[in-house]
Amino acid sequence: MAPKRKRGARAESARTSMRNMAAANHLQSLKEEASCSICLEYFTDPVFVECGHTFCLSCITRCWGALQTDFACPQCRKTSQNKTLRPNIQMANVVEIAKQLQVSIATPQKENLCREHEENLKMFCEDDQEPICVVCSVSRNHKPHTVLPILEAVQEYKEKFQRCLDPLKKKLEDILELHQKEEMKLKQLEAKFKRQRERIANEFEKLKQFLEKENSCYLKNLEEEENNNLQSIKETVTKLEEQESDLRSQITEIESKCKQQDVELLKDVKSTLSRYENMKAQVESYGTFKRKEEKIEEEEEVDLQIKIIKSLECTNQGLRVQKPQLQYTKKTLKSQIDL
Predict the structure, then answer these.
(1) What is the pLDDT averaged over residues 126-148?
(2) Alpha helix locations (H) across the chain?
């Protein structure tokens, strides 16, 4: 009986080999449909894009990179405005089937034969959790065990595996959705801080331009004020030189008068004293003028500081830049100078 079993096994092996060759051709076609056009491998976490084509999640994410809009399909080049990725669960199932077929075809035929009896493994022992041949199923070792036909066992365990897969795929779908939301948050946050940086740079550029303009204006006013003050001082110097000459003449006249004899000294006393009083009034008016001029200069300095402060306050309101601690008011500055 043993030689007959061996011949039968070889014939069955030949038929199986032919079937496997035909299956390999079909598997190649199936693999092409279950492969990503970007990485050319079986899909990993397959997802739909808006045009309907399917890609690996990691491949399409890497392909689109940091795009914000105009997401082009790598296969048909059709663009969409939104980065919408939906899990392709059916394709994931097809990939698993293709992988299983590839493994079953690539597995040497001897692994599908019973090592002891060289018969096809057509039964499944649930107690030992292993495939067995028909001869093993009626042997002493397996007779008291629960034995099922291999196809029935395959169907039963497929259903068990499917029950395991469903929650896992649901979890994967949730994670993909969360991943997409977090990526969107990341891009929105990057865009937000980019806008803030641009706005701050723009505001400080406006402030810089404003301060340069104000600086130019104040320097021009200062130059005009300098010219006016220089002219005023020159006029004052001229007047002082005239008064100096008059004072010297007056002093010389009075000194000469003091040296005269009694009667001669008393001549023209009234006119001499009158000229003296006029000269004295001019000198006193100069002192008053000098103090007033100093006071005006101090007030002009205060006014200049107040103008600068108000300009900065206006700038702060217009440019929304945090205003400095402006502690001095016009009254405070004046009181400090009066001290």
Answers:
(1) 83
(2) 2-33, 57-64, 89-106, 134-137, 150-259, 262-266, 269-319, 330-338
Q: Report whether pLDDT(244) > 80.
A: yes
Q: At what angle do helices 2-33 and 89-106 cross, to 10 degrees?
A: 150
Any idea which residue has 């949730």 for tokens? 174
The amino acid that residue 107 corresponds to is T
Cβ neighbours of 71 (radius 10 Å): 20
Alpha-carbon distance of 177 to 84, in angstroms, equals 10
Provide the residue type at 288 as one letter. T
Give the CA radius of gyration of the chain.
54
Output DSSP code: residue 49. Answer: -
- CA-CA distance, 5 to 322, in Å (whole number)? 96
How far from each other are the two terminal CA atoms of the chain, in whole angstroms? Answer: 132
The H-or-E segment that residue 55 falls in is: strand 54-56
* Whole-angstrom distance, CA of residue 236 vs CA of residue 259: 34
Longest dimension (CA), the chain: 183
What local confidence, expressed as pLDDT, does residue 202 receive? 95
Residue 35 is given by DSSP the state: B
Q: Confidence class of residue 324 from pLDDT cuts 50, 70 and 90? A: very low
Integer Cα distance of 145 and 131 in angstroms: 13
Given this model, what pLDDT does residue 193 score?
A: 96
* Number of CB atoms found within 10 A of residue 4's CB: 8
Question: Rounded to whole angstroms, what are the CA distances from 42 to 92, 101, 170, 296?
Answer: 9, 13, 21, 90
User: Phi/psi class of residue 260: alpha, beta or left (left: φ > 0; alpha: ψ in -120 to 50)?
Assistant: beta
Q: Reduced to 3 states, what is the DSSP secondary structure of residue 261?
A: coil
Answer whether 0.70 is exceeded by the pTM.
no
